[in-house]
Write a structure and sequence with these properties.
alpha/beta; Spore Coat Polysaccharide Biosynthesis Protein SpsA, Chain A; 2 domains; two-stranded antiparallel sheet; 8 helices; 13 strands
Length: 280
C-alpha cells in the first residue's frame, strides 16, 4: 500500500508511549505504532463474531458422548471459553454461536454470556451435518446488513490479534472480507491457499497428497461482510471450503492474513494431546 512521508512533533510522553507500544514483532517501530493507532481509531470496528460449535466430535469418543467437542477442557477451561476470552480481549463482545449436538451443555455453561463479559445468543442446527456454509447461512437474518463479522470454527485455538486482522482487512477494502491463513507441513489435510502478494488467487480443499502448490492453509477464521450470504445457497448442505471459497477467490479480490501466532486445529486426539502440553 502506498505511503506518504510526514514530519510531526509530539510530546515526549507520547513518544515514550509509542516506543512501549512498538514490540518489534507486531509493531515494528514508532512510525508503525502511529499508523496502527490511527488505523484502529479511523477504521470501522468489528464488534460481532459468529462461532460454529455444532460438531459432534466423533473422533473424540468416548469423551464426546458426554460433551460437545467445543467443551473439551484445555488448561481447566472449555475450548470454547478460550475462544470467547480471546474475542473479549479485543473488545468483540457480541457473539452468536451455532449449536447442535448436546447444545444444552454449551447453553447452560455460557448462558447469555454476562459472566464472561460478553453477550451470547444461539442458533440451533435443526439438521445434522449442514456443512460450514449451511451453518453460517442460518445467521443471515440475525446480522446487520452492512456489519462485518468474524467467523470462527470452534475447534481452532490460536492467539490471533483480532484488531490487527480487522485492520488488515480494512486496508485491503474487499467487499466480501478476508481469510486468516497459517502454514503447515501437511497442507493436503486442509484448504490450501495460493497467494500473490496479499491476494488469494487459488483455494483448493484437501488436494491429493503431494499435489498441494502451497504450504499456506485456511486457519478456520474469517472476516466477512454480509455479502458472503449471497454466495451460499439456501436449504442444502454447503461447505465453505468445497462449494464457496474456490469460486469466490476467482471472482473477487480476497486478501489473506498470514498468522504469526500459535495455531491448532483440534481435529484429532493427537492434536488435542499436543494442545494440552503446549498451549499457554
Amino acid at each position: 500500500m502506498k505511503r506518504v512521508r510526514l514530519t510531526i512533533t509530539l510530546r515526549k510522553d507520547l513518544v515514550d508511549s509509542l516506543d512501549r507500544h512498538a514490540d518489534g514483532v507486531n509493531i515494528r517501530n514508532r512510525s508503525h505504532a502511529i499508523e496502527a493507532l490511527l488505523s484502529d481509531t479511523l477504521s470501522r470496528k468489528v464488534n460481532k463474531a459468529v462461532i460454529l460449535a455444532a460438531d459432534q466430535g466423533i473422533t473424540f469418543r468416548p469423551f464426546t458422548y458426554e460433551m460437545p467437542k467445543a467443551m473439551l477442557p484445555v488448561k481447566g477451561r472449555p475450548l470454547l471459553e478460550h475462544i470467547i476470552a480471546r474475542l473479549r480481549k479485543y473488545d468483540i463482545r457480541d457473539i452468536s454461536i451455532s449449536v447442535g449436538y448436546l447444545k444444552e451443555k454449551i447453553e447452560s455453561y455460557f448462558g447469555n454470556g454476562s459472566k464472561f463479559g460478553v453477550h451470547i445468543d444461539y442458533v440451533a442446527q435443526e439438521k445434522k451435518n449442514v456443512g460450514t456454509g449451511g451453518a453460517l447461512k442460518q445467521f443471515q437474518l440475525r446480522l446487520i446488513k452492512d456489519e462485518p463479522f468474524f467467523l470462527i470454527y470452534a475447534d481452532v485455538l490460536t492467539d490471533i490479534n483480532y484488531t490487527d486482522f480487522a485492520r488488515f482487512s480494512s486496508e485491503h477494502k474487499s467487499d466480501i472480507g478476508a481469510l486468516a491463513l497459517t502454514t503447515t507441513a501437511t497442507p493436503e489435510l486442509w484448504g490450501v491457499v495460493k497467494l500473490q502478494g496479499d491476494k488469494i488467487i487459488e483455494f483448493v480443499e484437501k488436494p491429493a497428497q503431494n499435489s498441494a502448490r502451497s504450504h499456506l492453509i485456511s486457519a478456520g477464521i474469517f472476516l466477512f461482510t454480509p455479502r458472503i450470504f449471497s454466495y451460499i445457497p439456501k436449504n442444502k448442505k454447503v461447505s465453505l471450503e468445497k462449494d464457496v471459497l474456490p469460486d469466490l477467490v476467482k471472482k473477487h479480490s480476497l486478501p489473506g492474513y498470514v498468522l504469526q501466532n500459535q495455531w491448532y486445529d483440534i481435529s484429532t486426539p493427537a492434536v488435542y494431546e499436543k494442545v494440552l502440553k503446549e498451549w499457554k
